[in-house]
Description:
Layout: H1 5-22, E1 24-26, H2 28-56, H3 61-79, H4 81-90, H5 94-181, E2 189-194, E3 200-205, H6 211-267, H7 270-279, H8 288-316, E4 318-320, H9 333-363
Antiparallel strand pairs: 1-4, 2-3
Amino acid sequence: MWFSNEHREDARDCVEERDAQRGYRVDKKRVVIAYAAEIVIIAASLSGAWLFATTYGHDDPRTMAMMMLAPIGYAVIEFCRVPLALSVRTHRSRFVRTLAVVGVLCAGGVTVKSVSQLGEIMFRPRLFDVVHAAEELQRVKAAQATIVQQIAEADARVHTRSAGLATAEQRNTSNAEQLAKIPAPGPCIRMSGMNRQGQPYQYPVCPKPDPRMVTLSDHLKRSSDARADASRELEKAVAARSLLDGDRTRADHEVAKAQVAFREAILHSQLHAFSGMFFGVSPTEVTDAQISQFLRIFVFFPAIFVAFASTLVALTAVHLVEPKLIPFAPEGTDYLLNPIYMEALRQVYARHKTDAEALGAKYA
């Protein structure tokens, strides 16, 4: 249905008259923008709460439902902020306006909490990557330290076995030298003659060996066996030590690989990059305390701005309407002022007449 220009002007006049009676005018576009912003914030908050519940609810429907109750209540409170902001500007009662201000601040605090959680969730995946990379780096460094300790113990074992072999060789050499210093017994002599029966006899006569030779020979055999055992133990220790070289190489490779992964995880973390720029250090040198301090600025303050953005839009949607002056025609002056003037003259005349009568009665 199409309206004529006359109908549109009448409708506009009615709206202006209503605004003039109320003393304010509401910009509907800004109110719509404020409510739209609230709806977006509420939808984002509920979505973030649902993602949080599905991530940490352990796939338990009861637990996830419990985690969603408070965000739903927060969403209702957040939606009440725009009407409260409009009441701050439009309500006639000062007490009600004060209560509306308190309500706006309380609802804003709820929104700050919800938006802060969203800001923290935004950085959480990257922080998880950094934490996991740091844990992997610590694990491979611990493995590397274990191998280094094993190598040190193996080196000490090889040194001990070498010293034992050297001692065994020195003892064996000493026994051999002592045995060599003992002179060899002389050659055997064949004795011959005739016995009592007149029969000839012949037998060899050998000198008795030095009794020290038996003892030294036994010592030499024992020292030789000890030297052989020490040599075998040294070979085992050297073989075990040589195997550790490959483990050390693999451990060093794993540490270098984990360090690269850790640095890449930090470089992919915006929070580390921003914290490094804020504190003037390298992103890899940012501490957990510095990240927490930066989160207060990068998450908390934007949450405050987001929380009160729609409120400010709603507050600025109300415009005070100045009362219009009714044009006054000069020819209507007599019509409006003459009755007032005549009434004033009548009152003056009546008052003077009463005074004159009172004075005449006094001198009569």
